[in-house]
Amino acid sequence: MSAPAPSSPVVVEAQPVERQGEVLTDAALAFLAELHRRFTPRRDELLALRRDRRAEIARTSSLDFLPETAAVREGDWQVAPAPAALEDRRVEITGPTDRKMTINALNSGARVWLADFEDASAPTWENVIHGQLNLTDAYERRIDFAGPGGKSYALRPAEELATVVMRPRGWHLDERHLRVDGRAVPGALVDFGLYFFRNAQRLIDLGKGPYFYLPKTESHLEARLWNEIFVFAQDYVGIPQGTVRATVLIETITAAYEMEEILYELRDHAAGLNAGRWDYLFSIVKNFRDGGTRFVLPDRNAVTMTAPFMRAYTELLVRTCHKRGAHAIGGMAAFIPSRRDTEVNKVAFEKVKADKDREARDGFDGSWVAHPDLVPVARESFDAVLGDRPNQKDRLREDVRVTAEQLIDVASLDARPTYEGLRNAVQVGIRYIEAWLRGLGAVAIFNLMEDAATAEISRSQIWQWINAGVVFENGEKATAELARRVAAEELAAIREEIGAEAFEAGRWQEAHDLLLRVSLDEDYAEFLTLPAYELLG
Length: 537
What we know:
alpha/beta; 15 strands; 20 helices
């Protein structure tokens, strides 16, 4: 165990990792303690409100726009103008903050890098600390990386680098290695606090600023808490109010009904909203999991962005953002190019291009990719619409009219769950969880870059199909026994594929067991990452 000097209010309960002292200075830990004591009690109240709201959804199987915030939706207000570094966001790349990814993402040609401490990062203590170090090293231009075979990686000139927008962990996750007054500090406050304290002034000096993506927000009250944190933090380190900018992921179904209110709460710090599609589907299943057959989703790959309820969500997001002067950022292109299969690449690139063309035509100001090779594809789609303009916030999309019912009209889909969809959910779930338990949060599986949202929707769909009594096209009924059989077959197939030695060296059995636990338990786990974190080294 390591511990800071006796003067620190934070207890560090972790084996030290290299250069840890550079991050966990007494001053940084004192800031974390202030954040924790001031804001964790409200975080706890908001998590309780999430549970209350979920109980109400279970009772009514419905959601609506909030009557008590109608004045906000009808009011005449705008978010603060975007800083120069975030005015043009036509392509954003996402990925974890390991050293190689830090260099590749900054060099990728994307305008923005989502430096991810959340779904694309497994929160090992080493990842938490070294991710912070890698970002600071990049800002100070003292980062390089030597790969296998002697290939070296170094930063391009500053003017060619992506602007960093950092994503901390969601509100539900605690950081067990840091404790204040006997309690674990929320991971969101750890990630935000260390990054902000270490880099806010450094980023200002570089002509940018401390910019953030806020994950898994479920209400405008949660956005209000973040705004209060930003106000306090800026005063604490002595930088001007409004220096922080936050883009909120609309990746929960409840947040979709509060987009305007979320922007309003953050209006002095808001930079935009993002359509986070995989977590959004997970949130629909989670919240309406006992709502009957009309809420049963088909295979996840059958739910495209042209599905009516997904189209309602994305068009409302563009309309809301542009009405309020904010950026609308589109969803992830998760395809990973193959160095061996040109035909797979050709088909996938065509799909990515069609997806990005649609987003650009619909009015989005930019979109996400998961691999540097996709940056030119997405840029071409947005260049064709934007030309030399930095964004299309002037496209107000006043033609868009979305009702409360349209956002949850899952039954409008023609597709139905398939046996192969069950098998794919099991395959991806086991493979992703095994990598996560080894400290990898972004994992290439079947030519797609998968993150924690993938595993969440996989296990949620297994749970939903079983509890809804889905019968697949082959006549088999979704049951716990069928899921166990498919999982056993997949485990055996993996052992055959990689060999007994590699299998035993991995964490495959644990991954298999955890997937079945969170897929089959009657008491649905709120987040897969909570029990998974208990197994993380």
